[in-house]
Amino acid sequence: MSSRAKSGSIALRGMREEDLAQVAELDHLSFADPWPQGAFEYELKSNDYSLCLVAEDHEAPHGREIVGALVIWMIVDEAHIATLAVHPDYRHRGIARRLLAEGLLRAVSLGAVRSLLEVRSGNADALHLYYGFGYKAVGLRPNYYQTEREDALLLDLDPLDIENLRNLIG
Ligand SMILES: CC(C)(COP(=O)(O)OP(=O)(O)OC[C@H]1O[C@@H](n2cnc3c(N)ncnc32)[C@H](O)[C@@H]1OP(=O)(O)O)[C@@H](O)C(=O)NCCC(=O)NCCS
User: Ligand 1 centre and the CA of 94: distance in Å?
Assistant: First the structure.
């Protein structure tokens, strides 16, 4: 996969069935305890309370490639970030910021007023991203990530501010 993709070649859209293999591969590259492909398939096809988005590089050398994925669970008026990953070759160029802002805007249109998530307490990249959105740490879940033996921070963004989210998409 190219590490030189221009940010203009990255488009965000809803996840489709044909994306699932690439989404699962991306998750394997991004997490010590990745979701199996079937978990993404369930979210996409069977969970009515799930919002699934991808970022696609439509100028990738071998054709279109999925370079980012986001799943949000709609829990009453809460948008819970279930998983978010960007391909290692495409990090630090604002793709996660765009994906998350777009996902949260879609969640607001479905009735969300706040967002919650768990994140590894040592995940500096993710914490930088979330604090940039205005998420605040409101709790600690000890040993939440058993593979990495690491605590989770519980982050809360309340309220979801549409103007702020639009500005984050850029
Ligand atoms: C966390 C992750 C999704 C971020 O993806 P990304 O596309 O690189 O993030 P972005 O480029 O959108 O960065 C968003 C912000 O964080 C900043 N940032 C990203 N990585 C950074 C780093 N290592 N150091 C400092 N700042 C960083 C960006 O500069 C940007 O800040 P800005 O809005 O002030 O410009 C990506 O690192 C990843 O997939 N990690 C593995 C999976 C994971 O941990 N997911 C989160 C689970 S909760």
Answer: 7
For 8, which DSSP code? G
126 Cβ below 6 A of ligand 1: yes
Q: Which pLDDT does position 149 carry in this prediction? A: 84
CATH architecture of 7-169: 3-Layer(aba) Sandwich (3.40)
Q: Encode pLDDT of 12-47 as tens digits.
A: 999 999 999 999 999 999 999 999 999 999 999 999
- From residue 67, how far is each of 10, 78, 131, 143, 170 by CA, in Å? 8, 26, 22, 29, 19
Question: So where are the chain's domains?
Answer: 7-169
- Is the preceding omega at residue 159 within 30 degrees of 0, hence cis? yes
Residues 41-78: pLDDT tens digits? 999 999 999 999 999 999 888 878 999 999 999 999 99
Ligand 1 atom nearest the C-alpha of 86 is: 39
Q: Which of 1, 91, 150, 157 to mutate to test the pocket of ligand 1 (most atoms within 8 A of CB)?
A: 91
Ligand 1 atom index nearest CA of 123: 44
| Residues acting as catalytic residues | 118, 130
